[in-house]
Amino acid sequence: MKIAKRLTTLTLALLLVISTGFSAFSAPTPPVVNMTVLGDSIASGYGLEDLLDSYGALIAKEKRYNLTNNAVPGHKTTDLLWVVCHEETAINNIKEASLISISIGGNDLLNLLSDADISILLDIAQKGENSEYIKTALNTAKENLINVCTEIRSLNPDAPIILQTLYNPIYAHPTYNSFAPMLDKLAPSLLLMLQSVSQQFDNIFIADIYSAFASYYEETSDLSVIQSDGIHPSEKGHQLIAQVITEEIDKLEEAGLIHKVADAYYLLGDTDNSGSITISDATVIQKSLAGLIVFNNSIARLCADADTDGSVTIKDATAVQKYLASLLTDTQINTYMPVYN
């Protein structure tokens, strides 16, 4: 008797549905996060056997981001400014970015030191951050970075930008490791320069790579985070950089500045898994309530819980019908809902 009543109810409901002439509602695409990496050889993954071991790729894999990398080995801040102003691929990637990560400035200083004569090196060794040569290099880098960020903001007003401090690689350099303490003395000035840049714009943040490497050196005495060239990060070094930036990204997600990508998405109300909301979805719910079909997994049941009250009832079928008839507007039906494992 109960089965007969259910079938009668189902038949009447189907007749009612057919007579109303509902049309399908196409769904939007699931949300994505596009991460763009800019900068120099560190950001490009120079020297790695597999670029999937670079910190950008590691972050993108963990966070399920779409990654584009426009970093170029050897680039200084002047080169990065040219890229964001003239390189079409990079410009398009910046426009589409949800997050931008920048590693730059190391070559500005390395070129200064490598091109310097003995008098300049002695001046830097004696005065450190107070050397006029260092001040000039930092001021030039700062001006270039301000122009870089200004251009990025003209292309993309909202995406968070993460500026990275520079680790000290010289401890692992077979020839110049005795100069490592001298470079350590420059770290505070580098940090202040980046902070000064970040304070002039909205949503620019600092990932302190220098401190992470310094702490790692101190705690482990392990220099294998640097490649044998004594400059670039190894696979282990990229993992350390990825960890620091990911911690910063976690904060941005918590603050709602970056969308947290779910493990999976389902389209609420799409019970027949067609990719759009149609009257068939209400029919599937009604059939399940009549015992004619059984949902084969938890995602299917989540799709069927159209009113999101935690259970599948006739109210869910009614909600889908009302949505299709444009009688229900305050609803999440036809939106992608996240699933976090």
- What is the total tally of β strands? 9
| Structural category | alpha/beta
| CA-based gyration radius | 28 Å
Poorly predicted ranges: 1-21
- The domain tally reads 2
The global form is: elongated
State the major sheet.
5 strands, parallel
What is the CATH third-level topology name of the largest domain? Rossmann fold
CATH classification class of the largest domain: Alpha Beta
Measured between the Cα atoms of the first and last residue, the distance is 42 Å
Topology as a string of helices (H) and strands (E): HEEHHEHHEHHHEHEHHEEHHHE
- Estimate percent helicity: 40-55%
* CATH superfamily caption of the largest domain: SGNH hydrolase
What is this structure's SSE topology?
Blueprint: H1 2-20, E1 25-26, E2 34-39, H2 41-44, H3 55-63, E3 66-69, H4 77-86, H5 88-96, E4 99-103, H6 106-115, H7 118-127, H8 132-155, E5 161-164, H9 180-198, E6 204-207, H10 209-220, H11 235-254, E7 264-267, E8 276-277, H12 279-289, H13 298-304, H14 314-324, E9 336-339
Parallel strand pairs: 2-3, 2-4, 4-5, 5-6
Antiparallel strand pairs: 1-8, 7-9
Helix pairs in contact: 1-12, 3-11, 4-5, 4-8, 8-9, 12-14
